[in-house]
Amino acid sequence: MKFYGKAQEVAEQVIQRFKTGDIGQPLADIFIKNSPGSPSAYWSHRNRLIMHLIGMTHDARGFKQWRDVGRKVKKGTHAFHILAPVMAKVEIEDEQGSKVTIQRLVGFKSVAVHAIYDTEIFDEDLWSRSSTPDDGVRKFLEELPLRQVAEEWGIELTAYSGKQQAARGWYARNGVIGLGVKNLSTWTHELIHAAEDKLGTLPKNIRGLEKQQAEVVAELGGAVLLIMLGHEVEADTAGAWKYITSWAGDDDDKAISMCLDVLGRVCEAIDLVMKTADSLGDAVQEAA
Predict the structure, then answer these.
(1) How is 133-201 classified by DSSP, letter by letter?
(2) 203 with 210: CB under 8 angstroms?
(3) Assuming Cys at both sites, which of 12, 61, 143, 194 could form a disulfide with 65, CB separation 3.0 to 4.6 Å?
């Protein structure tokens, strides 16, 4: 197998750190705090849970709501459903015995909504005005290393308030990466997911062992990629080890074994990222 530059060497060095425990402390999360511009920010806890677990998204809206902000639902995509209260007017007697009419909850109805990754922009200006993050978040997104690679692959970058859901970031196959923290390690983790998707090595229905392996590839690959780019601290190998061991049931030996098992996939994903960057004319300097 052909590896790009120092990918295999650096990956083996990182795994050696895992073995010796020479990894320091994980970096603290710096959560992104966007203004709650999405209607889903005001949904009930139940519906926000449905959005995260079933819709696998941080932002979902109805068909017309998306069009109102310059996005349209892609053909062939499918909605998921949240629950909306059904209210009815009922007549009751008040304390004085007088009849009054009130609104009472009588049930729920399902409402179809679409995740952001099932939509596409048709009005750039309208979407920009509806979704512009604050200056600090925008600057962070604009300065992400290898951002041009994601753009070349047709991937849209978005930010969300990180405490709205447990995930620090996510990658959607329809071409969106969402970041809830200002951490480069989260960014490269999701970029490696995208690279695996392009390579065809990211399973279509990830569950069980396949899910474990995909997450280990992304976490190890993201750390290696940052080290190769000279971002040693931001690679957060301590955080990577903590994350990987969580997928190994907190079994250190199993975590090491999982890293070694997916080493080839890690290097192939890095290879694709780096070659894409080179093809765009980006000078990618490896750490000495």
Answers:
(1) PPHHHHHHHHT-TTHHHHHHTTPEEEE--GGGSS-SEEEETTTEEEESB--HHHHHHHHHHHHHHHHT-
(2) yes
(3) 61
Residue 71 and residue 94 in one domain: yes
Q: Which residue, of 86, 116, 146, is where some domain finishes?
A: 116
Task: Tell whether 270 and 187 lie within a shared domain.
Answer: yes
Q: Is residue 122 part of a domain?
A: no
Going by C-beta distance under 8 Å and a sequence separation of 6 or more, which residues neighbour residue 173? 117, 197
Element (H, E) at 99: strand 99-115
Please state the domain count of the chain. Answer: 2
Same domain for 66 and 16, yes or no, is no
Say if residue 213 is in the same domain as residue 94.
no
Closest to 256 in 3D by CA, of 271, 244, 273: 244
226 shares a domain with 270: yes
**Each residue's pLDDT expressed in tens, for the chain with a length of 288 residues:** 444 668 999 999 999 999 999 999 999 888 887 655 688 878 888 898 888 778 878 789 999 999 999 999 999 999 999 999 898 998 888 888 888 888 888 899 999 999 988 999 999 898 877 776 677 888 999 999 999 999 999 998 888 877 655 578 989 887 889 898 999 999 999 999 999 999 999 987 767 889 999 999 999 999 999 999 999 999 999 999 999 999 999 999 999 999 999 999 999 999 999 999 999 984 444 333
Q: How many degrees, rounded to 5, is the angle at CA 271 between CA 174 and CA 183? A: 60
55 three-class SS: coil
Place of tokens 């120092």: 6
In terms of residue numbers, what domain contains 140?
A: 7-34+133-278
**Do 88 and 224 reside in the same domain of the chain?**
no
This prediction has a pTM of 0.77
Q: How far apart are CA 1 and CA 36, in angstroms?
A: 47
Confirm whether 207 is domain-assigned: yes
